[in-house]
Prior knowledge:
Layout: E1 12-16, E2 23-29, E3 32-36, E4 41-44, E5 68-75, E6 78-85, E7 94-100, E8 108-109, E9 127-133, E10 139-146, E11 154-163, E12 169-171, E13 190-191, E14 205-206, E15 237-241, E16 251-263, E17 282-288, E18 294-300, E19 309-319, E20 321-328, E21 336-349
Antiparallel strand pairs: 1-2, 2-3, 2-4, 5-6, 6-7, 7-8, 9-10, 10-11, 11-12, 13-21, 14-15, 15-20, 16-19, 16-21, 17-18, 17-20
Amino acid sequence: MGEHPRCGGRLDLFYSGRGISGIFGVPLDPDHLNRFADKPTPLFSFNPNHEWERYGEMNEYTGVAWIEGPWLFKYKDTYYMQYSASGTQWKTYAEGYYTAKHPLGPYTYADNNPLLRKTDGLVTGTAHGSVVEGPDGGLWQFYTIVLSNPPGGRRIGMDRINVDKKGRWSVQITDTPQPAPGVKSARASLPVTINKMNAMNALSKFSSQQPGRYASYAVDNSSGTVWEPDPSDPEPSITIELTPATRFDEVQLFDVDAVRIMFNAGGRRGFGGGGGAATVYKYKVDVSLDGETYTTVLDKTSNTEQRNTIFEEFKPVEARFVRLTVTEWPGAQLGVIEFTAFGLPGRTEPARVAIPPVITY
């Protein structure tokens, strides 16, 4: 058998025990890979002093955890062992790492742990990952994203690993689309629709909604909520005003250049869950400056692609309103987990009502 590319010819297996047992390593018989060549070595286990490892949404269980998901990567002359805790049912599911000079240790806990942890927004429960070397020689972290509520739905995230002068790793988790490795983007667009359904004086509107499945959930930046229009609604739509403010404030316009839509495949069987083979959604996105006259910037009413999460870019267009209309969907019930428009602040218009001048005496 050829030499292992990163371990100098060694063939080792790393696995997790049950619950708080921790991570183990064992050399394999190179002639019989289904056999251990020696006794397993305990590498490290649950440490209740590492608060992020504990069970619970507030890491409140001091004696309960699930240590799992080992992934070993050699960088320069150091072995980095990633692992996950506290459990996939929590948004606090996170990832840390230990380092060693030998695959089987001894391992030292990194003082900047956890490596991955995010409990709010669309990207939560970031853990159970792996590392690859990118085309530019940099390191990239892949990880599981645990949908907020109910737990069980999964997505895959990817972000760059930064390495400091001491060899410590860090990852800035992103929950908005990023340029692919090696691709330079001149625009750094922002999400411009979040929580603008019920904002003060907003002119946002929707065609229908069901109790507990409100239209505002489509723009609340959470994977744990979903907008479900009435099943009899032939073309459900949601319109978001991008500049909700008091009538005394200036009107901010935006140069919109992309949208992201997360459809709820499988309906109420679980957010992001199953739902059969057909997951073709047909839809369009329109923009307007006055809320009356609309221009279509993305027409997918003849779409044939099977995708539950969509990100589409287009030429920047000035807008005050953005409207999503879904024309066809699989199954009886449409669900939209999130609809996000991206763009940059553009020009402004005068306030709807002028502020009276201040009278001085």
